[in-house]
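Entry type: protein chain
Record version: 2
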Amino acid sequence: MANVYNKPGFDFSNVIRNSFLEAKGIPLPKATSTGTTIVGCLYKDGVVLGADTRATSGPIVADKNCEKIHYIAENIRCCGAGTAADTEFTTALISSNIALHALQTGRVPRVVTAMTMLKQMLF
């Protein structure tokens, strides 16, 4: 049996389970939509972020063009899911604090600094 559990990239570990279920005549599980989709992919020179744009209020689509990738600093972005207004306010506040921090220190803000600010604010 191939080792599919320690490879980087996509996780194909359910292939073996699904083949077993299918051989036994058990119907395969169906994919379900659970809300926001946010993806980040690392490559040699950086990161690519992607997100859907729909904001919902229960079963109703409230906004078809909701930004879920938020600006923090020139080199930092934050992806948010949940209440859109809260995410927008939080990232705007952190962005302002990061800009002040950069002015005080004279250095490009680090991701860990933004993460620490977010962590202290949210938790």
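Comment: The chain has a mean pLDDT of 84.
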